Every structure is written in C-alpha cells, then in structure tokens.
C-alpha cells in the first residue's frame, strides 16, 4: 500500500483502526432504556440511526457483553432518549460500567409500555423491537416507533474524540 499525498500510511483493518476512525466521527448521544427482570436498564448509545420513515423505524447497536444486553435481548419495547448538551453527566452515568444509572440524580418515570422515560431530554420515543440482527460482537436492534415527544428544549450533546461535546456555531 502506498500513501496518498497529504495523508498518512493506510492501515490494515483492525479494531484499533475502526476505533481511531470513529473517534473522528461526531455523533449524537442517546440513552436507550428498557425494563428488565431486576428493574430498569439503560446505556449510552452513539449508534442511533433513522432507518425508515414509513413505517417509522430506527436502529442502534449494543454489545452482547453489555450489562444491559440481557434485558434488551428480551424486551418488547425500548425507550430512546436524545440528550441535550446540559446532560453530559447523565450520558457519562449511562456509559459507566457498574453505575447506579437510575439512582439519584437521574430523573425518570415509568412510561408507556413500562419503558423507563428520562426527564428533561431533547426528545424521547417508545419503540417496539422488531428485530435483533447479529453483527460481530454486537446486535443491531431494529425498532418501530410507537409514540414520543420531540419538544424538549436545548441543543444536542455530541460525542467526538472520546469526549462529550456541545454543538458550536
């Protein structure tokens, strides 16, 4: 392989290459929630994608080794919450292994279909899981929107270069 002018030396595919490239990709931050046998579960996701408008479908990825996976693997419904720039601490809590994600100061309530709904987010959806597609050490969850609220105030929280960031104009 030869380098292109002004670019570095190409690297062969590896987990490190993929992580390095996606650190440069700014992504919105969401928290996915579900009801589990032992109570509510949730995790921070930057893999949220709109899939289809008709019917309204979205997708997100989750590692099969994640603490939330057992609940997500059997959940009929999930909550999808878009976080605002004022929610960096909340994003970090849901990203941290072993954290008490639904304890204080997390503000939430039981929502439609028993899904935990977080307070003060930019927008939230309750979705019916329609498929879980194997993808390496992850599963891609496809979910159909049932209902939601897009009316939260604020600007989006982003994830870039391994950190949470505010959108700048």
Considering the chains and any ligands shown, give keywords for the structure.
globular; 169 residues; three-stranded antiparallel β-sheet; 3 helices; single chain; mainly beta; seven-stranded antiparallel β-sheet
How large is the share of residues in beta strands?
A: 35-45%
Number of strands: 12
Estimate percent helicity.
Answer: 10-25%
Shape: globular
Q: Ranges with pLDDT <50 over ≥5 residues?
A: none
Give Rg in angstroms.
17 Å
Biggest sheet strand line-up: 3-2-6-9-10-5-4
What does this structure look like?
By secondary structure, this protein is mainly beta. The protein has 3 helices and 12 strands, in the order αβββββαβαββββββ. It has helices at residues 15-23, 69-74, 88-95; strands spanning 27-28, 30-36, 39-45, 49-52, 57-63, 77-82, 108-110, 116-118, 123-135, 138-149, 157-160, 163-166. A 7-stranded antiparallel β-sheet has the order 3-2-6-9-10-5-4. A hairpin with a 4-residue loop joins strand 4 and strand 5 (57-63). The longest helix has 9 residues, at 15-23. It is globular. The model has no long low-confidence stretch (mean pLDDT 93).
């Amino acid at each position: 392989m030869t380098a292109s002018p002004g670019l570095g030396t190409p690297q062969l595919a590896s987990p490190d290459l993929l992580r390095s490239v996606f650190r440069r990709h700014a992504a919105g931050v969401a928290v996915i929630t579900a009801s589990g046998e032992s109570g509510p579960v949730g995790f921070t996701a930057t893999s949220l994608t709109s899939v289809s408008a008709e019917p309204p479908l979205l997708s997100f990825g989750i590692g099969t080794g994640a603490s939330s996976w057992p609940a997500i693997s059997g959940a009929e419904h999930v909550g999808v919450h878009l976080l605002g720039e004022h929610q960096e601490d909340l994003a970090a809590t849901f990203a941290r292994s072993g954290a008490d994600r639904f304890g204080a100061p997390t503000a939430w309530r039981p929502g439609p279909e028993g899904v935990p709904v977080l307070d003060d987010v930019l927008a939230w959806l309750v979705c019916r899981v329609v498929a879980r597609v194997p993808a390496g050490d992850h599963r891609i969850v496809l979910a159909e929107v049932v209902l939601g609220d897009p009316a939260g105030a604020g600007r989006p929280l982003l994830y870039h270069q391994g950190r949470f960031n505010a959108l700048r104009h």
